[in-house]
Amino acid sequence: MTTPLQLLETSEGVSFYHQGDEEARWIFDEIFTQRCYDTVKLPEKPVIIDAGANIGLYTLFAKRNYPEAKVLAFEPARESVSIFNQNISLHKLSGVEVHECALGSKNETKMLTFFPNTPTNSTIGSDGGNEWLELIADKVSKEVADKMRENARQTPVPVRRLSEFLRDRDDIKKVDLLKIDIEGGELDVIEGLDADHLLSVKNIVMELWSPDGQLEVTKKALEAKGYTVTTTLVPWKSGQAEKMKMYMVTAQRV
């Protein structure tokens, strides 16, 4: 059963379509109120890659703060892409293109586990999000984890290297920000960049779950590629980020 589309009108004056009020407000707070991806200063007309675009809230944030930004958004879940497009139309935004695919280190097809109750947790990870759900059950509640699992389904989706979308683009000389929120496989996105394209990426900001040392591995990998890296806990309330081991990683090429 498809959840009806709803329009949320926030007190900050930002309206957007969504299919789940609680998750929508959570993501809005992360992006617009806590400004968790707003960790680097960008030029007036930045080129931004939105990897894991979901329903488009980060793209809306980017265009609100940088109206002349060019945004290339990537989202493998068809349901989320549909809402993304409606949100772009709602705000009559130009300079935005969305690609219905995941990003990775090579071109292939993977299974997307889609969680209709919490689409932002959908993943192409090999375990289908089971480890994350087990942590939710342990640290939050079994009821929440069970609600997330409800009606979950798998579907094949294309995975593409990011360089495919940057090659032969006369309008893109550099990428000012690569934003990544993809629920696993973050370094695969970066491995999908040819050497010249990687050098053109000035800043990377990602949300990273680190249950088994992924934070240190990611930090070292980015430093080896020439970035200066800083990390903080995701600005969630009530100490949940520390319990869930969720981090924001900012990498700058200086």
UniProtKB/TrEMBL annotation:
Methyltransferase FkbM domain sequence ranges: 50-207
InterPro entries: FkbM_mtfrase, SAM-dependent_MTase, SAM-dependent_MTases_sf
Record-linked Pfam families: Methyltransf_21 (PF05050)
Source species, domain of life: Eukaryota
SUPFAM superfamilies linked: S-adenosyl-L-methionine-dependent methyltransferases
Name this protein carries in UniProt: Methyltransferase FkbM domain-containing protein
Protein's organism: Fusarium anthophilum
